[in-house]
Amino acid sequence: MQVNALLPRYPVPALNVPLTTGGRFVLGAAPAEHFDLLVFYRGLHCPICAKYLLELERLAPEFASRGVQLVAISSDSEERGKQMADKVAASGVQFAYGLSLRSARQWGLYISTSRGLTSIGIEEPTLFSEPGVFLVRPDGTLYYGAVQTMPFARPPFQDLLGAIDFAVARDYPARGEFTGDV
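-> C-alpha cells emitted (182 positions)
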C-alpha cells in the first residue's frame, strides 16, 4: 500500500462527486474566487463530524464573503449524505456523497474499518475515510492541507478564516513545497 501526501503548489487529484441537492461537484469546473474549501468527513455515523460541520455551516457567510466555496464530502450513500446535510441544516455548505475509497486515498486520507454502532447508535460503514481539510486554489493547486487519523482536534474554521484573510491580503504563498533531498 502506498499513502499519498499531496504537495502544496502542485495540482490536486480530480474530484467529481454527486451533491445531495442534485448535480455534481466537479473540482475546477466553477472554482471560487480565492479557494475551494474541501472538508472530507467520516460520515453520518460520526457525531464529531456533525458538530464540526454545524460550525462550518454557521460560518458559511464569512467564507462566502471571502470568496471561498464550501464542500463537505463523504463516502456515505446518498441517503446518509442527505441526512447529514439535513442534520446541519445545510444552506451555505454543499454536501457531496459517494466518494470512492480509491479517490479518498488519492487525496491522502486514511481509511478505517467498521467497529459497529457508534455512540449515537448509527452503524459505521464497512470502510470509510478519516477527515481531511483542503484549501484548493482556482488553478487546481493545493494551498493548505490537513489530514487526520482520528475525528478529534480538527483545524478550527475560525482559524482558517484568519489564515485566508492573511494569505489573500499578503499574497502569501503555499508552504511545504520543497521536494529535494534533505
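The helical segments are 47-65, 78-87, 101-106, 157-170.
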